[in-house]
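In response to the reviewer comment on reproducibility (Comment 2.3), we provide here a single inverse folding case reported in full, input and output, so that an independent group could reproduce the run without further information from us. The structure tokens appear first.
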């Protein structure tokens, strides 16, 4: 069973291998594959408003963050980023984190959630986000340079959190 809690700075020693594995594959995130530990720490642990970890058997198997998508007059819409360990995929951890993030975003006062850059070839993520209530509201043609395929589209996905 997965549990989700707020992350502590000390959790980054377990978060970093998950991020490094995902970023180095060049197929789902825009971060450079050679990102340094320090750069990843800043992006994942310092910039967001809230960071969470998903645990299975007391080990971190996933993580996500929440942050305002834009400053000022756009700050009521949040953005989130998710990462699941390759060893834990297919166990519902991504869905559990998404559902948790939607509740946490409401608790933090956000009115909507927007994913700015969902790589179109990441069909598992697209399907999951749609299952969790997100809609594709925009397409960015050839916006992502996929390691194996070359330039592919990215989607903007959105969900209101208020009725």
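Designed residues, in position order:
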């Amino acid at each position: 069973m997965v549990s989700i809690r707020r992350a502590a700075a000390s959790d980054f020693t377990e978060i970093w291998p998950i991020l490094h594995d995902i970023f180095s594959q060049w197929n789902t995130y825009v971060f450079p594959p050679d990102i340094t530990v320090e750069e990843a720490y800043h992006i994942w642990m310092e910039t967001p408003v809230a960071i969470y970890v998903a645990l299975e058997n007391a080990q971190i198997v996933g993580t996500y963050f929440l942050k305002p998508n834009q400053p000022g007059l756009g700050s009521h819409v949040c953005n989130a980023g998710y990462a699941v360990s390759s060893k834990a995929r297919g166990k519902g951890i991504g869905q559990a984190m998404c559902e948790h993030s939607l509740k946490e975003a409401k608790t933090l006062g956000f009115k909507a959630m927007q994913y700015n850059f969902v790589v179109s070839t990441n069909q598992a993520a697209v399907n999951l986000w749609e299952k969790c209530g997100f809609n594709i509201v925009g397409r960015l043609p050839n916006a992502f340079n996929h390691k194996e395929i070359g330039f592919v589209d990215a989607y903007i996905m959105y969900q209101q959190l208020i009725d």
